[in-house]
Amino acid sequence: MTLELKGRAAVITGAAGGIGRALALRAAAEGMPVALADIDAVALEAVAREVRAAGADVLALSVDVRERAQLDAFAARSFARFSSVALVFVNAGVMRAATSWQQAPADWELTVDVNLKGAGHTASAFIPRLLEQNAPAQVIFTGSTSAFLPRPQLSAYSCTKHALWGLAEAMQLELRALSAPVGVSFLAPAGVRTEIANRHCAGEEQTMQQTVHAMLEAYGMPPEELAAKTFAAVREQQFWILPHPEFKSALLERAARIEAETDPA
């Protein structure tokens, strides 16, 4: 069944740039009002102005996804503002590069708290309201191919995306057991041209971080292209959204190595 989007709201966390901004503008192009959340209030307001200029009704709130109470308030405001919510993009995320055993404790905590706990908090704030709404809707988790293919120097990021895959798949099974009209999607892109890795770190970590950023700048998919592919899949309520199909062969190779009990190196 094709999900009806026009006139129904899209909710997006991590909306102040990158993938979140592209999703917001795509939602506006689809005729959807949008509810935007991000911890960066200044950048968020700039995106909100762009989306309003594109013709959408916009609710924009500064939200820290590490704080469940803030997400509950965001969900309440979103459902009070818009008559129907079709899409919830659980998109807030951070990336900190480092060798696994040298990762700073604060960076471990930030990555887990935002990428995993924040995603769980977001889903927990919105899904009960989506079920009460009792209309077809989709919750989309922004994962990564790192969920399946861990990268060296991105261990904290990779493990949170791996855990997010588990959360998304379990949640889909739970909703299907209820015969609920709400479904789940797991969006797993490879490189996307965003600023996620363009953050200042100390010492060797800064070199690693800038190497990742340079690769995303050179080879990453434009976020607008990713948003278009995501909306095409979400409209059909697909669970798996794999916008870089060239990585499927690597997934099959990894499964074969596991079956053969072969060392990943």
Strand content: 5-15%
The CATH topology is: Rossmann fold
The averaged pLDDT comes out at 92
CATH superfamily: NAD(P)-binding Rossmann-like Domain
Output the CATH class name: Alpha Beta
The tally of helices reads 8
Which overall shape is indicated by the principal axes computed on the Cα atoms? Answer: globular
- How many domains? The number is 1
Task: Explain what this protein looks like in three dimensions.
The chain is an alpha/beta fold. The protein has one domain: NAD(P)-binding Rossmann-like Domain (Rossmann fold, 3-Layer(aba) Sandwich). The chain is built from eight helices and seven strands. It has a seven-stranded parallel β-sheet, with helices on both faces. The radius of gyration is 18 Å and the shape is globular.
Task: Describe this structure in a few short sentences.
With 265 residues, this protein is an alpha/beta fold. Helices cover 50% and strands 13% of the residues. It has a seven-stranded parallel beta sheet with strand order 3-2-1-4-5-6-7, sandwiched between helices.
